[in-house]
Amino acid sequence: MFMGEYSHTIDAKGRLIIPSKFREELGEKFILTKGLDGCLSIYPMDEWKNFEEKLKALPLNDKNARAFLRFFVSSANMCELDKQGRILVPVALREFAGLTKDVVLTGNLTRIEVWSKEKWIENSNYEDMDAIAEGMRDMGIII
User: Fold this and answer.
1) Across-strand partners of 120?
2) What is the rounded distance in angstroms from the CA atom of residue 1 to the CA atom of residue 109?
3) Half-sphere exposure (CA, 13 Å, Cβ side) for 96?
4) Mind giving me the DSSP string for 31-61?
5) Distance CA 17, CA 20 (A)
6) With contact defined as beta carbons under 8 Å apart, do 113 and 102 qualify?
7) Residue 1: in which H helix or E strand, if any?
8) pTM (2 decimals)?
9) Rounded distance between C-alpha atoms, residue 84 and residue 130, angstroms
């Protein structure tokens, strides 16, 4: 399970250090792809396989299903850590997420999200958390 928030930097070559607390859970190979809200997502292989099965079940005659499938799969990259615990983030994914220097990695139970610091600040504004929590009751989550 991934949890926590870690600040790092991405270098000019696109190399990003993965926090040591995340490395063991990730395993030797894992998937980096686009995420929702303008971040990137890192999936351990078993979680990616679960997600892949759900994507395979989408009806290809549905335009939104095809777009959803393309969004995640066309940008998916298999990654391995180098000896310093870094991954190379492809240019297209860096541009998508706006990764230039300061990066925030957040644990989200089954995956890791990679944010530009600016987008993280913008998307982690929890002023309406009471309303969001109220809506979670309809999904069976009661605090």
Assistant:
1) none
2) 5
3) 21
4) EEEE-GGG-EEEEEHHHHHHHHHHHHTS-TT
5) 9
6) no
7) none
8) 0.91
9) 41
